Here is the input.
Amino acid sequence: MRQLRSSYLPSGGLVIILRVKKLLSKATSLRIILILVLVLFAMLPVIVVCGVIRSAAVSVQMNNLVMDVQNHSLIMSNQLSKGEYFANTDNAVLNSQLVQMANFYNGRAEVIDNTYVIVGDTYVIDKGRYNISELVMKCMSDGTKSFYKRSGWNINIVQPIVSQAEDALSGVLLFSVDAADVEAWNKRVTVIIDIIEIITFIIIAVLSYFVSALLMKPLRKLVGKFKESAKYNVQEDIVVSTYKETRDISDSYNKVLAKLKNLDESRQQFVSNVSHELKTPITSIKILADSLNSQEDVPVELYREFMVDIANEVDRENRIIEDLLSLVRMDKTSNSLNITETKINDLLEALLKQLTPIAAKKNVELILESFRPVVAEVDEMKLTLALSNLVENAIKYNREGGWVKVTLNADHKYFFVKVEDNGIGIPDNEQDKVFDRFYRVDKARSRESGGTGLGLAITQSIVFSHKGDIKLYSKLDEGTTFNVRIPLIYIE
Here is the structure.
C-alpha cells in the first residue's frame, strides 16, 4: 500500500546533511569549513519550512477531500434510507447513484445491512459476502454518526443508514476513496519545492562563498604578514585588529617575537660572556709566562710564585669548562637524569659534612633541620650538585661567624628544601638576574672566591629538570633564602 510521506525533511535534506558532515570531517581549510557551516545553517531553516509547507498543504487537501466525501456519503445514505434500499437492493436508480458517486471519486461503494452482509457493491465482486471490518463494526455499534480512517493515500468512510419507517439502523454505507489526485498534486508540489530548495541552495552557496572571503580577509592579511616576516626576516610587530581573534593572534605573535629577540640577545650575550670568561685566565697565563720569559736569571722563589699563579688560572679555566659542560648536559636533562629513590635526609647530611671544612675556614655554622624522613625519586648526583651550589654560595657570601641553615620538609606531593643565611644579601635590583649565566652580583669578590657565575644557573636547570621550582628571597645586609620545591615522584 502506498504510504504518505509526513517527514518535514525532504528526501534530499538528510543526504545534504550527511554529505556536509563528511566534508567537514575531511576539510582542512578554514574557509571551506566556514562555507559549509554557513550553507548548513542557512539551509536548515529552508528545508524545515519547505517540509512544513508540503506537509501542511497535503494535510489540507486530504482533509478537504475527507469532508467532501463525508458530505456526499451523508446525502447518499439519506437517499438509500428514503428509497428503502434494503427492501429492494436491485433499485436501479439508487445503484446508478452509487456507481456515479464511486466513479466521481475514483472509489468504491459498499452497502452493508445490519447483519454485516454486503447487499450492494459497485465492484460487484464482494456482494453477498460479510464485512466485519473494525470500522464497520464501530459504526454499527454506535449507529448515529459516521467514521473514517485514512491509510496512506486511501480513505475509508462509513456512514450509518437509518430506516425512516422504523427509526432504527438498517445498515451502513462504506465508501473507499483512492486519493490519487491528491497524490499527484503532492508530487507536483514536491517537485516545485525541490526546485526552490535547489535554487535557494545555489544562492546561499554563492553568498557564503563571498561572505567567507570577506570574513577570511583579516586572516589572509595576517598570514601574508607572517610569510613576509619569515621571508625577509622582518622583526617588526604585527597588528591586525579587525577581530578580537586576529588581535589576540597578533599579540601572541608579537610576544613570541619579543621572546625570540630576548633569546637571541641572551645567546649573543652568553657567547660573549663565555669568550670573556675563557679568555681572562688565558690572558693571565700569557702575561705571567711572558714575564718569566722576559727576565733573565729568574729567582726560583719568583718562578715558583708565577707557576702557582699559572696553575690557579688553569684550575679556574677548568672550573669554567666543567660548569659549561654541566649546563650543556642539563639542556638534555630528560635523557641524562638517572632517577632513583633517594633518602633526602641522608643526602643533606652527607652534603653538609662535605662542606664543613669550607665553612670552618670562615667560622660559619652549618645547621640542618629535618621535620620528617623524606624519600623521593631524584637524580642523586645532580640534586647534590644543585643543593651544594646553594649551600656553598651561602657560605662564601656570608659574614665571619655567620650561620647557614638548611631545612627539609615535605607534604603528600612535594618535598621542600630551604637554604637560608645571615650573610651580605642581594640588592633588590639584582635578584632577577642571579640565575643568568655568568652573572655575578659582586664580580670582583666572585672571582676572588673562585666563582664562575654559572652555579645558580646550573642549580636552576637541575631543579627544573626535576619538574620543581626555586625561589629567592633576600634583603641587603640581612641575608638570603632559597626555597626549593621538588615532586616526591618524578614526572616524565
In short: The longest helix spans residues 30-82. Residues 1-11, 443-450 have pLDDT under 50 and may be disordered. The two ends are 68 Å apart (CA to CA).
